[in-house]
Specification:
This protein has one domain. It is built from three helices and two strands; from the N terminus they run H-H-E-E-H. Helices cover 41% and strands 10% of the residues. It is mainly α and 61 residues long.
């Protein structure tokens, strides 16, 4: 969120994002912004463990 705040301060557009801790929160957020959604575990700093959800079933998986 610190990096996002810096981007906001300097006027750089970014995709909608949110830190979530439950499947229900993730499903609600994804439904509000639309699919596909990029998923990142909290412990990952690079793109190694990212995943893409193309719909609710992918997100549940």
């Amino acid at each position: 969120s610190k990096y996002s705040a810096i981007l906001d301060d300097i006027g750089v557009n970014q995709a909608p994002w949110k830190a979530l801790s439950s499947l229900d929160e993730a499903l609600t957020f994804a439904a509000s912004v639309g699919y596909p959604c990029l998923l990142r575990p909290s412990y990952v700093l690079s793109g190694f463990s990212y995943d893409v959800a193309y719909g609710p079933d992918d997100l549940r998986g």
